[in-house]
Specification:
about 55% helix, alpha/beta, single chain, 6 helices, four-stranded parallel beta sheet, Dna Topoisomerase Vi A Subunit, Chain: A, domain 2
Length: about 140
């Protein structure tokens, strides 16, 4: 069992490294809320992040911010619940109309790795700490 958990942890760490690299290159990430931003910062993601649902923002507000940033591609990292999937679908459709590439690679990969064990992005740091503890790592830090 521990070997399987170590594989899961390693896959997520590799995915987070790729995400950090894309973010550092200037690719904007869109998440649902401020707690999701805080979680990604805790996981050392340093680039630009937009909170789609913070402070009552509408879909139109998010799209305006993407346009203002002048980005050609955005990474969508919404939650894995029904509402997150709906926002992902709506954002994808609208971004494509704006000729901005919606990158769903990280969302799809993370969903395939964690399955139903994780419902949102804000829970990712805690999930990683739990994996570390279960794997017997000396430090429960990510």
């Amino acid at each position: 069992m521990s070997s399987k958990l170590k594989d899961v942890k390693e896959k997520i760490l590799q995915l987070l490294e790729k995400l950090a690299s894309e973010s550092e290159k200037g690719t904007t990430i869109i998440v649902e809320g401020r707690n999701d931003i805080a979680a990604l910062r805790k996981l050392t993601i340093k680039g630009g992040i937009i909170a789609a649902k913070a402070s009552g923002r509408s879909l139109l507000d998010v799209l305006r911010e993407v346009r203002k940033r002048g980005t050609k591609e955005v990474i969508l990292l919404m939650d894995f619940d029904r509402r997150g999937k709906e926002w992902t679908k709506r954002l994808t459709q609208n971004l494509e109309r704006m000729r901005v590439k919606p990158n769903l690679f990280f969302w799809n990969e993370l969903l395939s790795i964690v399955g139903h064990d994780l419902k949102d992005i804000e829970g990712l740091p805690t999930y990683m700490e739990t994996l570390s503890r279960k794997c017997g790592d000396q430090s429960s830090k990510v």
